[in-house]
Each structure stands twice: as C-alpha cells, then as structure tokens.
Write a structure and sequence with these properties.
Blueprint (H helix, E strand, L loop, with lengths): L2 H6 L5 H17 L1 H7 L7 H19 L6 H21 L7 H10 L4 H16 L6 H23 L6 H19 L1 H5 L8 H5 L5 H5 L5 H25 L7 H20 L13 H18 L1
Helix pairs in contact: 2-3, 2-4, 2-6, 3-14, 4-6, 4-7, 4-8, 5-6, 5-7, 7-8, 8-9, 9-13, 9-14, 13-14, 14-15
C-alpha cells in the first residue's frame, strides 16, 4: 500500500507510513500464504494486519535469525524490543521502524496489551525451552505464539459476536500446530521439538528417535495423531468465521483452508518431514484464492 493509499485511510504521518510499508514488505517476503489472504481484505484493513504480522516476525527474527549470537544476547535484544514497544504503547506513539505501525494499530483497534505480553513471553520461551513434555505445557507456549495473534486481529475484522475471540484462538492454534508438524526437521536445526513427548511415547517414540531424523512407522502414527488434532481445532474454529464482518470472512476462510491444508500435504508426502517440505501447491492456492477474491469483491 503506497503513501497515497495510506493517507486515504487516515495514516498520514510520514513515520507511520514508512513503518506500515516496512511491515507490509516483511509480510510479503516471509508470510506468502498469509499475505495472499490479506489481499482479500478491504484495503482499509490490510495495513493493520500487516503491522501485527510485521511486529511478530521482527521479534521472531531476533529469536531465530541471530543464531550465531549467544542466547543471552538474543534474550536481551528481545527484552529491549519489548520495553521499547510497551513504553511507546503507554505514551501513545512510536518512532521505531516496526513498532510505530504496531503501536498505532493496537491503539486504533483497542487491542489488549496482555496479548502482546503473552507473545513476548512465548518468544522468550523459544530461547530457553527446547522441548515440551506434555500438550498442556505446549499449550502455554502456543497461546502466546499463535492464539494471541488471532486475538489481536479479531477487532480489525469487526466481529458481530464476542464468541469470535474463542474461535480465533482455536484457528490460531491449528495454524501453529500444522507448522510444527511440517517443520519437525527444521525445528531440530534449532534444537527444538514442538511435539508433546508424552504423546509421542504413546506410539513408542522418544525425543532421541525424533532427533535421529529417521521416519519410522511409529513416528508416522504419532504424526498422524497430531494431524487429527489440527483438523479438530480447524473444524471447531469454523463457526467463528461467520461471526466476522462479511467483508472479512473471505480472508480468514482462505487462510483456514490454505494453512490447515499443510497437514494434507504432509500426508501426501507420507509424513516425510525430514526430507521434504510440505507445500500447498500453487494450483490449489489459486483454486481457493480466485473464488474467494470474487466473493470478497461482492461483499465490499
């Protein structure tokens, strides 16, 4: 979105415009499926969703993209970002190249501070926890890393029922768990396992088995059980989409199908998560996105 378009939706401060544009570039570069879905939103809503994504990705990059730095330094950098963000949130504006847009979005849409606090807490967990013994423990992490992202976005989507917030949590968790299943091999490169170890043990799989990067019948069964959880959460979330403003629904419906479709591709790859990266084919993306775009146009 260019400066003229930002001005048209009431974002006319040059610092803010630059920040919103940077967040959009971050979203387009690093969250292609997510970015595709945002294009189904009315132009007046897109900058705010980009701002929330930009902040989340910026923080995540501090945690993961600076792996050559000691954990203590990355933790300190994350704490510094959080202090800057919350200080700017209290004073009502920011000059930070990413935080400026996110602070503005949080204030415009009255997004709860506690959602951002939970997100930062989960990012810190990534620096200090390399596995989760139970799903209950993993839920604490996933609430802050994924559920709150959905909760942040809901006000922008203008829900007609407060129950939409609970459904948004389910969908956010489904997205995150789908990523965990797809990225088992990649997460091992950061010495992390996001599959609950007690549930793996039910199939005779240990953390060392996962670290061995060898797909076995037992591990396939364990992953299949995790896939079923994603599908259950996805199904539970669907009523919430109908509680959003009509012009917001095509975006979230498309995101639901494409993100949760990751687990379908994991199945199609026979759960070979160590040697293949599951991707929703471009043809499938277009099959979903083009009708959704037509629908979005009619609802504006």
């Amino acid at each position: 979105m260019g400066k003229r378009q930002l001005t048209a939706v009431g974002i006319d401060n040059p610092v803010l415009q630059a920040s919103y544009q940077r967040c959009k570039r971050i979203n387009a570069a690093h969250g292609k499926t997510y970015y595709l879905a945002t294009l189904l939103l009315p132009p007046s809503k897109r900058p705010y969703v980009h701002a929330l994504y930009g902040f989340a990705r910026y923080a995540d990059d501090i945690v993961d993209s600076l792996d050559n730095r000691p954990v203590g330094q990355r933790s300190a950098a994350l704490s510094e970002l959080a202090e800057r963000f919350f200080t700017d949130l209290r004073r009502g504006h920011s000059e930070h190249p990413v935080c400026a847009a996110t602070v503005d979005t949080a204030l415009r849409w009255d997004i709860k501070r506690e959602y951002f606090e939970a997100f930062i807490d989960s990012m810190q967990m990534d620096l200090h926890i390399d596995h989760y013994d139970t799903y209950s423990e993993l839920e604490t992490y996933v609430y802050g890393s994924a559920a709150v992202i959905g909760l942040q976005i809901v006000p922008i989507l203008e829900p007609t029922d407060i129950a939409a917030y609970d459904y948004a949590k389910d969908l956010g968790v489904a997205f995150q768990l789908a990523n965990f299943i797809r990225d088992v091999g990649e997460d091992l490169e950061r010495n992390r396992i996001y599959l609950p170890l007690d549930e793996l043990a039910e199939y005779g799989v240990t953390a060392d088995d996962v670290r061995a990067r060898v797909m076995t019948p037992q591990l396939r069964e364990a992953l299949a059980a995790q896939v079923e959880r994603v599908r259950l959460l996805e199904e539970q979330s669907r009523p919430g989409i109908r509680m959003l403003a009509p012009e917001s629904q095509p975006c979230i419906e498309t995101a639901r199908i494409l993100y949760c479709g990751i687990v379908d591709e994991v199945e199609n790859n026979n759960y070979e998560v160590f040697t293949k990266r599951a991707r929703v084919p471009i043809r499938r993306r277009l099959e979903i996105a083009i009708p959704a775009w037509r629908q979005a146009i009619t609802k504006r």
